[in-house]
Amino acid sequence: MNLSGNKFLNCCKFKKVVKVISGLNTFSFSKVFKILKSAEISKAGYLDVAANAKIISLLKKTSNFPLCVSSLDPIELYNCSISGAEILEIGNFDVFYKSGLSFSSFDILKLAIETRRLVPDKDVCVTIPYTLNLYEQVSVAKKLEKLGVRLLQTEGMSDSKNLSFLNRFDVISRLLYVSASTLSSTYVLSRAVNIPVVSSSKINFISSLTSIIFGAFGVGIKSLIYDKKTVYEMSCCIDEILHTINLSTKANYSITPTLLVGNPNKNLFQSKYK
Q1: Where is the chain membrane-spanning (predicted)?
Q2: CA gap 52, 48 in Å, rounded
Q3: Least crowded by CB within 10 Å, which of 37, 56, 108, 140?
Q4: What SS3 class is residue 51?
């Protein structure tokens, strides 16, 4: 696997990757630059930015930090690869869900094939839509792996505001609930394929550790830092996530699941703790 140099590979090897996301619709260079500096200071794995060739060129003039670009347009991804982006990602779909748009397995595979054809020499990451059931997610993930996709990312429900049914004092349940769907996908996909899986969408201090235990090679964070005003505040959040996922290397148990995917209506799990 060739992902943005030895530093990134070492992070993958020890499952300590933190992907910092500036946002698919964030085109303010000053905002993106602040997020970049916070990721750089905290020694995060890489930065995911909107697929804008001009922004990529400007960032590359100021930093050698590894950059990933996200888009649903293979041409945009191609242009950004020329501008210096190391990783090309098909995704993040959440901004389209609000408009009633959804993406099928066929849509995802078509985009992956076209992107791989245009840019065969760069690493391609694909976000697996949470709107697909787990059986469909496993099926498309295996096909993407065969196509030469090097990295997968999970996502979860973007609307998690209705938490009134949870005890307002039960902070842990709330933090896990908002990440539940992406954690489920992480748990399944990390055992279905042999390529790294990054767990993303509403990841926080509790779910980040859970993601690593569930088999993720890293986590992607955006909402946790996006509203912070200063580089220092953003960096502190990233540092806490890094510290949290480092705890996973000290865990003395593992999860060995059995997933029955023969019947798409019968996804069963059995966990054995050692």
Answers
A1: 175-193, 205-225
A2: 11
A3: 37
A4: coil
